[in-house]
Design goal:
176 residues; mainly alpha
């Protein structure tokens, strides 16, 4: 597997992970609601945590991304419609951006069903501390650096795997 294919595999894995998280959160939410619905206070605390932690902002690209995927699919089906599709998608984006609170509420419900009101207050209190604020500020850099390091490590692992597979296949009389 060359580096380009490896990078594609990482992107696909990341996309699958994000999709799996949303599916998991939705199914967890349905299960949890069947068990016990969060109180309005828990929901508000969970929303406040998502805002304080930056998680609500992290969801902002979701709707534009879905719209971009739809645009790409339509253009692939009929490239001649690119200009009117851009106009239509641009006009529709504000309508769909109004749905952003729904995805925030889905995630907030997941938080609210896993933590008591007191625990949610403790979490929110953490994000109000200097350490909590630093955590929020530094996390994008930490994630970016760790993903870059993981990609580098994965590339090296890929090279090792390929070398070992070739070595073992050579022992069996196959050249790859």
């Amino acid at each position: 597997m060359n580096r380009l294919n490896f990078a594609r595999a990482w992107k696909l894995a990341a996309a699958a992970f994000v999709f799996g998280c949303f599916v998991s959160m939705t199914s967890t939410q349905v299960w949890a609601q069947a068990k016990t619905a969060p109180t309005p206070a828990q929901m508000q605390l969970a929303r406040d945590i998502m805002n304080a932690s930056g998680e609500a902002r992290a969801l902002e690209p979701l709707i534009p991304s879905v719209m971009q995927q739809a645009f790409a699919n339509f253009v692939q089906q009929n490239p001649d419609l690119q200009k009117p599709l851009v106009e239509t998608m641009t006009a529709l984006q504000p309508e769909f951006m109004k749905l952003q609170p729904e995805v925030t509420d889905i995630m907030a419900a997941s938080f609210a069903t896993h933590f008591t009101e007191a625990e949610l207050k403790d979490i929110l209190a953490f994000y109000s501390t200097p350490t909590g604020k630093k955590y929020v500020a530094e996390m994008p850099k930490v994630i970016q650096e760790s993903l870059a390091s993981a990609r580098e490590w994965g590339g090296k692992l890929s090279e090792k795997v390929i070398a070992r597979v070739r070595e073992e296949m050579k022992k069996k009389g196959h050249t790859i």
